[in-house]
Amino acid sequence: MDVGDLSPVERTTLLTEYARAVDARQPRPILGDPLADEVVRKIDYDYSTLGVTPSVRCLVALRARMLDDRVRAFVAAHPDAVVVDLGSGLSSMVYRVDPPGSVDWYSVDLPGVLALRSALLPPRTGSHTVAASVAEPGWCDAIPAHRPTMAVADGLFAFLTEPAIVSLLRRITGHFDSGAVAFNDYGRVSKLNRITGQLAMRGSNSPHLQWNFAGFKDPRQPERWNSDLRLVEEASAMFEPETEQFPRGLRAASRLARRVPAIARKARILRFEFARS
């Protein structure tokens, strides 16, 4: 399937999906998502231009596994939940989590991405799509507001501006009565590091060229933006058992992370809860 009509920002979905696919091909996968591998094999694209190194593959797979675990726990506690996958791309999280039929799952992304998603992923009862930019108002209007809701974002925030993230979080707590928000974060990425990375990727199709948001120096920053949010978890991928499967250099960094918090913050999941008063 050709993806030549996708815009550069829409093509950012290919990096994470390809990383999950390569993980699925490993003898000991971290995430183990064979559907991701099926999807990327159906797309006509030169994935070698994306810059998916073994370290990127491991970190993408591990953060997906960590987010899956948190969505499963939320659904187990709230069988009538609504799950909102923000910037869902081609992610097969709904198939991995496999929620009961009482759960409604909404995949929110740009129209071109969702058209590709609908063509490549099988239909599933209780699964819905919302073709809209999460940076614009109105994307949540058609989603039920009065059931426990978990909003999850895997790899999305890096491609949004800070004002767009502020608005997105306020829109979530303003529309839904109660629930949780979970997403991956890289800690604070300096401007110099971002420029260096973009220069290194020049001439490639790497989604890193679309990077906008520098990450959170303080994980409680969203609480200051939005008083309805309460930080309940900061979990570093560097402390997970799967770090034993990391490439040598990244494995060494994971060990060092226990003594250097800045390293631990480079690959983490942040989870917030909210309830309308």
UniProtKB/TrEMBL annotation:
Check the record and name the InterPro entries matching this protein: Ppm1/Ppm2/Tcmp, SAM-dependent_MTases_sf, TcmP-like
Q: Tell me the domain of life.
A: Bacteria
Q: Which UniProt keywords apply?
A: Methyltransferase, Transferase
One Gene Ontology term of the biological-process aspect is: methylation
Q: Name one Pfam family in it.
A: LCM
The protein's GO terms of the molecular function aspect are:
methyltransferase activity
Tell me which PANTHER family the record gives. S-ADENOSYL-L-METHIONINE-DEPENDENT METHYLTRANSFERASE YKTD-RELATED, S-ADENOSYL-L-METHIONINE-DEPENDENT METHYLTRANSFERASES SUPERFAMILY PROTEIN
Protein name from the UniProt record: Putative O-methyltransferase Omt
Species of origin reads: Mycolicibacterium duvalii
